[in-house]
Amino acid sequence: MTASSTTAPARAPTNRDENWKYANLRALSRISFEATAADRRADPIAVALPARTTACRLVLIDGEYSAINSDALPNGAELRIDTGSATAESASVDHYYLNLNRRGRRETLRLRVLEGQRVQLEILHVATHVGQPAIEVQIDSSAELTLIERYISLDTATAVTNLALDLRLAEHAKLYLARWQHYASPASHIETLNLVLGASSECDLTQVTSAEHSETAVSSRSTVFVTHAGEGARLHWHSATIADGQQQHDAYVRIDHQARRVQTQQVFRGIASGRSKIGFNGHMLVGSSAHGAHSGQSLKTLLAGTEAEANVRPQLEIYTNEVTATHGATVGKLDADMLFYLLSRGLDPGTAESLLKWAFVSDVLTRLPTVELRHQIEARLVLQLPGAIAARQSSAQETAG
Amino acid sequence: MLEIHSLQTRIGDKEILRGLNLTVKAGEVHAIMGPNGAGKSSLAYTLAGRPGYEVTGGSVRFEGADLLTLAPEERAQAGLFLGFQYPVEIPGVNNVYLLKAALNAARKQRGLPEVDAFEFLTLVREKMRLMQMDEAFLSRGVNEGFSGGEKKRNEILQMLVLEPKLALLDETDSGLDIDALKVVANGVNSLRSPSRAVVLVTHYQRLLDYIKPDVVHVLARGRIIKTGGPELALELEARGYDWLLADAA
User: Fold this and answer.
1) If you count residue pairs, one on A and one on B, with CB atoms under 8 Å apart, how many are there?
2) N or C terminus: fewer CB in 10 A for chain A?
3) Tell me, what's the ipTM?
4) What would the pLDDT profile of B11-54 be if each residue is shown by its tens digit?
C-alpha cells in the first residue's frame, strides 16, 4: 500500500468500482465521520464486558485507548500511543476510508513485540458512537504474537467504526490473529487492513463476522491488502461470515505474492440467511519475482434464505510460470444428500439444517487460536444457528466423558 | 410389519418400481437380490422417503400405518432404519452427537425421556466393541475420512444404537473384506429378534453365508420376479439372473 502526499486524495468509491461492487455504499455514504462524542476513555465501562480470552486485554473505546479499562502490557511487548492525525494520503479509491481515518483519527496505537519474544493479548474495540481506531503492530524477528481482536457495541444508537490496522512481520516472526466482529446493536463497520509478511514469517488469520441477533442492523466493509514481501512467507486465511435479516457484509482481499516460495491458503465460508447479503472478493496476485509460490483458495457461500444474496469471486493474476495455484468458489444451498442422511436418522429438519450450517463454518471455527475464544464465539452463534451449539457442547461433553 | 402392495415409483420421467409387492413379518430376515439397475436401492430410498423418488401408485404399510404419508425423519422415528450403500461424509458434525440426537429422537417418539450421558456412553461403547471400532471415531466428523469399510461399520453401529424395528441395509457388504464382512454380519445378527425385521439388499451370496435369510427375493425390472428360501441365493450364485429374466419376460 503506497501513499503519497503529492497526489490528489481518493474520491469516494461507488458500486461501479470493481472492488466495491457489492459494498453497502448507500449506508456508508450516510455516515458522518465528523461527529464527535464525549471522551469516555477515563470512564470505567459500566456494563459487564465479555470474559477475557487472554491474560492481557487492551480496551479501545470509539477508537481511543482506555487505560483505566486495560491491563498492563505483558513482558516482551511495547506500547506507544501517538496523538493526532496522520497526513499521508493515497489516491487509490480503495484507500478512501483509510484516508478518512488518517485525517480523523485522534491517536495511533503502536504495538511492538520484541525480537524473540512470545506475547498473547486481546484488543477489545468498544463502539458507542463514531470511532476511527488506528493500530500499527510490528512483530520483530523470531517473535510470536497471538492477537485477538474483537469488536462489540454497547449503546443502542448506530455505532460507526472506521479502522486502520497495519501489521508488519519481520523475518521468522509469527502472528496468530483472530478477529471477531460481533455487534449487538446497529453498527457500520469499515476497515482497511495492511499486512506485510517478511521472510519466513507466518500469519495464521482467522476471522468471524456475526451479530447478536438476526434483526441487528449491521453492515461491514473490509478492505485488505496482504503483501508477501520476504521469501518463504506463509499466510493461512480462514474467515467466516454469518449474516441474517438485512445485514450486509462485503470484503475485498488482495494478496500480493512478491517473493520466492511464498504460500497462501485462503478459506472463506459465508452463510446468508433472511434477506442478508454477503460479498467476498479474493484477489490473488502472483508477481514475476514469486517463483515457486503456492496459492490456494476455497470460497464457499451457503444461501439459507430465499431472499438472501451472495457473491463470491476468486481472482487470480499470475505473472510467473513457476507457481501452483488452485481456486474454487461456490454459492449454493444445503447439501441435499447430507440433509437426507440426518433426516433418515430421525433428526428434525430444523436441527438437521442448523447442524449442516454449523458444519459449513466449522473449517474456520476450528482454526481459532484459543479455546476460550472458540467457546465464546460458539456460545454467541447459538442465536443464529440454534441446535448446532447444543451439538458442539454435547459432543464435547460426551467425548470428555 | 411391512406390507408393500403394487408400489410404483419414478425419478423424473423414469419409471423405477413397477408394481412391487413385498411382505415382511416381524422376526424375519429378507434378502433382495437382482441385477444392476433393477430398482433395489430405489426401493430402499423410497421406503426411507428420499426426495426425488416419486410414488405414483401402490401402498406401503409399516406397523399398520401408512408409511408414505410420513416425512423421512418420522419414518426413522417410527423405527425404520436405512443403512446407506454410500454413507455421506459430514465434516463438522461429529459422530457422537449424531448418535445421541438420533437416539433421543427415537426415544421421544416412544415416549421415553432423553438418555442420560452415562447410560448413552455405556451403550455406545458396548456397541463399538461389538463392531470392533476405536472410540476415536466418536469425536470425528460423521464418516469423515473413513474408509469404505469403516463407513459400513459406522452404519451398523448407528443401527445397533437406535435398535430399529425394521432395518433396510443397502449393499452393506459392498467394499468389505472378509474380516470386516464378518464383523458387520455379527452386528446385524445381534439385532435379530422376534420383534424386529431386516431387509438386506445385496448382490452377493457371500453375505448370506453370515446372515442367514428366511426369504430371498429377486427384484428385476421394478418388480419381485421370484421368491424362495436361502437355496435361491445359491442357485443365483451358480446360474446368474438370465434364466429368471427370460422367464419373466
Assistant:
1) 104
2) C
3) 0.95
4) 999 999 999 999 999 999 999 999 888 899 999 999 999 999 99
Distance, CA of B72 to CA of B218 (rounded, Å): 26
- State how beta strands B2-11 and B14-24 pair: antiparallel
In A, which residues are within 8 Å of B106 by CB distance? Answer: 346
Beta partners for A164? A134, A192
The residue to which cell 479455546 is assigned: A371
DSSP conformation letters of A376-396: HHHHHHTTTSTTHHHHHHHHH
What is the per-residue pLDDT for A401?
Answer: 41
Closest CA to A243 of A313, A189, A314: A189
Cell digits for A5?
502526499
Question: Residue B217 region, left (φ>0) first, then alpha (ψ -120 to 50), else beta?
Answer: beta
Phi and psi (nearest 5°) for B197?
-140, 155
Mean pLDDT on B170-180: 88
Amino acid symbol at A234: R
A300-340 confidence digits (pLDDT tens): 999 988 899 999 999 999 999 889 999 899 999 889 999 99
pTM score of the predicted model: 0.82
Interface test with A, best of B11, B89, B97, B119 (most A CBs within 10 A): B97
Distance from the first to the final alpha carbon of chain A: 51
Q: What is the pLDDT of residues B75-128, one digit of tens each?
A: 999 999 999 999 999 988 888 889 998 999 888 888 899 988 889 999 999 999
A349 vs B contacts (CB less than 8 Å) = 71, 73
Dihedrals phi, psi of A312, to nearest 5 degrees:
-120, 140
Query: How far is Cα A261 from Cα A286, in angstroms, rounded to an integer?
Result: 11
- Distance separating alpha carbons of residues A253 and A179, to the nearest angstrom: 15
Task: Give bridge partners of residue A174 from the DSSP assignment.
Answer: A144, A202
Express each pLDDT in A359-368 by its tens digit: 889 889 989 9
- Would you call B109 exposed, middle or buried from its count of C-beta atoms within 10 A (0-12, 13-18, 19+)? middle
Instruction: Name the H helices within A4-150.
Output: 25-29, 96-104
A242 contact B CB<8A: no
- Residues of B whose CB is below 8 A from A345: 76, 98, 101-102, 105, 158, 162
Is B41 part of the contact surface with chain A (CB cutoff 8 Å)?
no
d(CA A228, CA A215): 39
Q: How far apart are the first and last CA of chain B?
A: 31
H helices within chain B, ranges in order? 40-48, 72-77, 95-109, 117-130, 148-162, 178-191, 206-210, 230-239, 242-248
The answer to whether residue A38 scores a pLDDT higher than 70 is no
Residue among A391, A392, A399 whose CB faces B138 most closely: A399
Helices A371-381 and A349-365, packing angle to 10 deg: 150
